[in-house]
Structure formats: structure tokens, C-alpha cells
TrEMBL record, chains A, B:
This is Polyprenyl synthetase family protein. It comes from the Bacteria. PANTHER family: GERANYLGERANYL PYROPHOSPHATE SYNTHASE (PTHR12001), SHORT CHAIN ISOPRENYL DIPHOSPHATE SYNTHASE (PTHR12001:SF85). Residues 1-12 have a biased composition (Low complexity). Keywords: Magnesium, Metal-binding, Transferase. InterPro entries: Isoprenoid_synthase_dom_sf, Polyprenyl_synt, Polyprenyl_synt_CS. Its cofactor is Mg(2+). Residues 1-25 are annotated as: Disordered.
Length: 407, 407
């Protein structure tokens, strides 16, 4: 699990700190703390509700608690920014500290945990957020308990159900919103209904995006004789579709819009449309940054082994650029690691060097910048006064923090 | 996959037809048709929304369509009965034909499909509703497409995501309820919020119940030397907990209560409490009937291979009774099939004979009757006039149909 040849200190975006919060002084910490407190409450409530099912219920809830204790609360913060977008001064401060913000953030974090658990099953991941992945944890429980049958199978099935539990908990947390008073324009019930719909269509989209992803991983890379340029172009398009549906919209656009709908931003308005474009573009840049970190990131900072994306055969935009820009020798070196669980650290380091040396990493950085710029342009295109100045400034800061991170 | 030794013609409850609808003349067919139409609409809407992701989106939606074309729409009908519980005459008829009934029913069917897909992965089931299980279908797609990697793994992962998609589609369909006008007492928004919460806590409960189930399957049966009576008692308690949380409340109580909340029945009232008891007890009887069919049912009628429950090692109430009532030889015959994928038809037939001959099947029938009676008693305890006579009569008919079915 050592870092690949290219250390993250050569990153084109040196940052004093990989964390997201510092770009938004105070707000990130406060929202994060409120969401943390709410998540603890949620888990306590379920422990109470399911106390007749101990120890089975505790096995699931402990695994959930472990997962939920990690994470950067990025989506929670984005929904908080959305919910306060039309507010200023005291109203903004009060709303940031309100139950609706904590609860929406908790729902997004619960859903994120659900998606991670299922994703880790699919990727056969060993660790998540520096701890054993949920299916590994349940596998160990099975083995340590001396239960019948295959421990790995039990771990996988248990984690499948844990993911289902977490998705349902997220949904219940969104249902709980009905108890909270909203601040901002428009009738409460209508805004809640819109936000709820947006939440549900987000989770549907992510699952379809994940399917696109596993599907793209099993389709063949170009055969010898195929035109590598046509293949690279095709890979680029597919990779962008996966990025958009599995990640970009989910990581940035949907949380922001769910918050904005609760905060009274109306669908169809110029502001709503600009937020959607901003969210999709910044979200795309965010995921492309992630893909760069997946090859070149420092595992001590990212918390995930470098090169795993290559070993899994993940068809990223970065890979499609390398496929186009390198030569047959380079493609040979890439093939040696793609979807090759047995690829060595040396193989991975060579592959990373190919991606860097052929100029793909640089071209990828330009794509990150282009998406970030397109996102910011959507904000800049809004008429002055559409939202308080503090909101546009905060969105802009968030965009930079999300795309220039190191972890 | 032939029937076990005891043919279903010896069933203590001979029925002219395994279907559920005939006990409720007209209503079942009409609700079923409205839900079918709504499901077709839902899938069409997603095809449109995800048309940019063809063919991947079609692969998922075709699998969903196949699953949704089957099923008895039992839960949809129960929620329709709930929604019309306080209504009579024209209002009842109009509500039965309303979008809110069709949509709630569609949401329940979508969720049922989701739970089945995940359940079939866990059980490594080959078929569902007489067709290949979703993970098998996607496995075949992988193989026929000549994709990379292991077809079985792809099938399993694809189905995991299909289940997630279906759960999200169910949630979106519940969100869509906000567009429908409700009939009955109380403010619309409050009733919708209550129903929505009930839906979300139902899905959470089922996933926990499924975990209880897989967990009970891997715990050891009594070791030689253990007291079989204590073991049987323990098994009985665990089996009932699984029945309650995975199935009984989900199959009957929750759909009925979700409908009732939409129809204006208030939580905490005598009627609400009676419906909860009725639903849980009838639901328990319903699942116990299912467990009987899992051993003694006719595969041509049930659509699932007989004996699979034994082969999987499912710890049912029926099995716990047999464990108590049979002798060491009988327990030996049962051990020969429990969680033994290689058990032969002859082994399964012997095991079924043990269960019948020791009196466990008869004792099990008595438990079915006891739960049914307890459910009906909850209704009979209500003050006259709490609901229109047509409603109590229909609930009673439903209880009988659900527990005396053959499929």
C-alpha cells in the first residue's frame, strides 16, 4: 500500500491541508458538528426501536456507526449552503443551526454510507475510511463467532442488507423533515415535497450510474488492430457518463439542490438552473480530481490504497486520455495493470508514469479546470442580487475547495 | 423439481384456486389492473428519463419489468383496503379507482420487487415468479455479450444495483403521492407525511428482518448432547422474530396501515391499534402458511421448487415444531437436508414425511389458526360503527384468503 512513483508533493495543486472545511471558515465545522450530533441521535433511536432484536440489530448498527463516524460531510455542507442560499444575517445563522439542516445532512450521510457499503461489496474493497469495509467486518464477525457456512458469503450478504438498512434510514430521516419548520419563501409542504422527490431521484440515479460503471468495466478495451483513438474517444464518453450519473450530480448538484428546494428556491427559475449547472460541473471536476487522486494520491492522506482504480480496471476519463496520448508500449503497460488484481506495486508505478509522461495527467488537469470554470460561469451569469453576496462567495469557495483537495 | 411426497391435494385447506382475488369480488381485479397500469407508466417514465443511458438503462428496466409483471398484488390490495377503510358507497368506489391507490400500490410492488431481487441473491435462487431470477438474467446477459470477467459475479453485482434502483423507484413513487388529492378526514399533508414515514420504516424493518434471517441460518442446530427441546424452543422464538420482522408486518400490517393513514385513520386510535394487531397476526399466519407451502406446496402452483426452504436451511416455525416433536432418527433425517444444497428429492421427501408424521404439520396448522383468530378478534373487539360494515367484512375476507391460499 505504498504511494505510487509520483508522490503527491508534486501535485499541481499543492494545498496546506486536504480537508474541505477551511475554505468556509466556521460554517463547515458547525454544520459538521450538528450533523454528527444528529447521526448519533438517529442511531440511538434505532437501537431503542430494535432493542428486542439485540444482538443482531447491534451488529448492523455498530457497523453503521463505524462508517458514519468517518467522512468529510461534504454533501451535508452543500445541502446546508443550499438551504441558506436566499438568507442573510441572523436568518442564515439560525437556519444553519436548525434541525432541518442537521436532518437533511444526516439523511445525505446515511445514504452515502449505504452507497459505500454496496460499492465496497462490488469492488471487493478491504478498507473504507481507514477501517475494514462493512462486508469484511461482518465476515470477521462470522468467523469469530464460529458460525456455519462460508464467512465471506455471510459478510457479503450481511453488508448487502446493511446497505439496504442505511438507505431506508436515510429515507426515514428525510420523512422526519416533516416535523421541522422551514425558513424562506413559499409554502412549507410544497418545498418539502420537492426536496423529497429530489432526494429519491438522486438515489435512483446513483444506482443506475453504478450499474453503468460495473458495465463499463467488463466491456473489452480495444483489441489489437482496433483504432486506439476511436476506442479512447468511446472510453472518454462512457467515463464521463459514469462520472455524471454515479458521482458528479450526486456529490454536488443534488445535495445543493435538495437544500435549495427546502430553502425556497423554485424549480425553473434562473437561480435553480444556474445551481444545477454549477453543481453538475463542479461535481464533475470534483470526481475527476478523485480519479487523479486514485492514481497519484498519497494513501496516507486519501485513506485508500493508490492504484486501486487501475487494479479494478476503472474506466476513467484519465485513462481514456492516456489511451489516446500514449503509444503501443504505453498501452501495453496500462493493460498490465487494468483489472489485474495481481498487478504489483512496480507495475502500478510504471502505469502511473505512462499516464504522467504522455501528458494525460496534464490534459486531465485542464479538464478539471474547464468543468470548474463552466460551473463558476453559471453563477457569474446570474443577475446581481439574485442571492445575497455571502451565498455566491460561499459557493465559489466551495467549488475551489472541492476541486483542489488532496483527499 | 418434482413435488415432495406429500402432494398438495392432501392439504388441510383445499381451495378451488390459489389466487387471492376471488375472496374479494371485483375489488382485487380492479385494484390489480390500476396498479398494473401505473407500473407500466412508471417504467415508461424511467425509460424516457434515462434514454441517454441506453442500453444499460434498458437492461435494468427490462429486468424490472419482468419482475413486476408477476406477483399477486396482495400488498397493493391491502393498502387499497386501508385507504378506503373509512369510506362507503360512491366515495369508496371513487377512491379505489383513484391515483393515490394506484400509486401507493405501485410503490409497494416496486419495493417488493427490490426485496425479492436482494433476497434471491442471498438465497442463490434460480427462479422467481417462474422466470430466471434477476441475478441469473444479468449473468446470462454478461455471458451472451462476451463481456470480461466472471458472469456470475456480474449478475450478482448488477442485481444488487437493480434492487437499489427498485427501492429508489418505490421511494420516488411515494414522493409522487404529493400530487394526488386524498379522500377522508384530516389534513392532506399530515396524512401523507405519516404514510410516508410508515413506508420508510417498513423498508428499514424488512432489511433488519432479512439480516435476522441469514443470521439464524448460520447458527448451529443443536449439537449431539444438547437438549433438543430447549433447542426447539429457542428456534421457535427466533423463527417467529424473523417471521414478524421480515415478513408478517411487511406483508400485511404495513401495507394496510400505510393505506389507512392515507385514508385518514389516526395513529393512537382504537381503530389504528386494532388494524396493527390484525395486520401483524394475519401477516404471521400468512407467512406460516408460506412456510408450509415451502415444504408441502405444489411447485406448479407456488411457482417455486418445493423443499428449497429445507435445502437453504431456513429456520422456520414448522421446523422448530418438528425438532421438538420428532425423535433422534427424525432429527437425523432433517439434518440430512438442512442447508445441504446437495440434498436429493428422496432426502427432501423423507424430511417432509418426518415433519408430517411427527405431528409438526398439524401443530403448525393450529398455530396458523391461532394467529388468524387473534387477528380477527382485534377487529371484533372494535365498537360497532367504527368503520363501515363493508370494510370489516372485506378485512375478514382478506384474512381468510391470505391464510388459506395454496400459492
Amino acid at each position: 500500500m505504498s504511494a505510487p512513483a509520483t508522490s503527491s508533493t508534486t501535485s499541481p495543486h499543492p494545498q496546506p491541508d486536504g480537508a474541505y472545511a477551511p475554505a468556509l471558515p466556521g460554517t463547515g465545522e458547525r454544520v459538521g458538528a450538528a450533523v454528527d450530533a444528529r447521526l448519533i441521535q438517529v442511531l440511538q433511536d434505532y437501537r431503542r426501536r430494535w432493542r428486542g432484536l439485540v444482538p443482531a440489530s447491534d451488529e448492523l448498527l455498530d457497523a453503521a456507526a463505524q462508517l458514519l463516524s468517518g467522512g468529510k460531510r461534504t454533501r451535508a455542507l452543500l445541502s446546508a449552503l443550499g438551504a441558506t442560499l436566499l438568507l442573510d444575517g441572523d436568518q442564515r445563522e439560525l437556519t444553519l443551526a436548525s434541525p432541518v439542516v442537521a436532518r437533511t445532512g444526516a439523511a445525505l450521510e446515511l445514504y452515502q454510507a449505504s452507497a459505500l457499503v454496496h460499492d465496497d461489496i462490488i469492488d471487493s474493497a478491504h478498507t473504507r475510511r481507514g477501517m475494514p469495509a462493512a462486508h469484511r467486518r461482518l465476515e470477521v464477525l462470522h468467523r469469530d463467532s464460529g458460525w456455519l457456512g462460508d464467512s465471506e458469503t455471510f459478510g457479503r450478504h450481511g453488508a448487502l442488507l446493511l446497505g439496504d438498512v442505511l438507505l431506508s434510514l436515510a429515507a426515514e430521516e428525510m420523512s422526519g423533515l416533516a416535523a421541522d419548520r422551514l425558513v424562506g419563501p413559499g409554502p412549507d409542504a410544497a418545498r418539502r415535497a420537492l426536496a423529497r422527490s429530489a432526494f429519491d431521484s438522486m438515489t435512483a440515479e446513483v444506482a443506475v450510474g453504478q450499474y453503468l460503471d460495473i458495465r463499463s468495466e467488463v466491456t473489452a478495451l480495444s483489441a489489437p488492430g482496433d483504432d486506439p483513438l476511436a476506442c479512447a474517444q468511446d472510453m472518454h464518453e462512457h467515463a464521463l457518463a459514469v462520472v455524471r450519473h454515479k458521482s458528479a450530480r450526486y456529490s454536488v448538484m443534488h445535495p445543493l439542490l435538495i437544500g435549495a428546494l427546502l430553502g425556497g428556491v423554485e424549480p425553473g427559475t434562473a437561480l435553480y438552473k444556474a445551481l444545477a449547472v454549477f453543481g453538475e460541473e463542479v461535481g464533475t471536476a470534483f470526481q475527476l480530481r478523485d480519479d487523479d487522486l486514485g492514481v497519484f494520491g498519497d494513501p496516507r492522506v486519501t485513506g485508500k490504497p493508490a492504484g486501486d482504480d487501475l487494479r479494478e480496471g476503472k474506466r476513467t476519463v484519465l485513462l481514456s486520455l492516456a489511451w489516446r496520448l500514449t503509444d503501443d508500449d504505453g498501452r501495453h503497460a496500462l493493460r498490465a495493470v487494468l483489472a489485474q488484481p495481481g498487478a504489483t506495486e512496480a507495475d502500478l508505478a510504471s502505469a502511473a508514469r505512462v499516464i504522467e509522461d504522455c501528458g494525460a495527467r496534464e490534459a486531465h488537469e485542464a479538464e478539471v479546470e474547464a468543468h470548474l470554470t463552466a460551473g463558476l460561469a453559471a453563477l457569474h451569469g446570474l443577475e446581481a442580487g439574485t442571492m445575497p453576496e455571502v451565498s455566491s462567495r460561499t459557493l465559489e469557495e466551495a467549488a475551489h475547495a472541492l476541486t483542489r483537495r488532496r483527499a
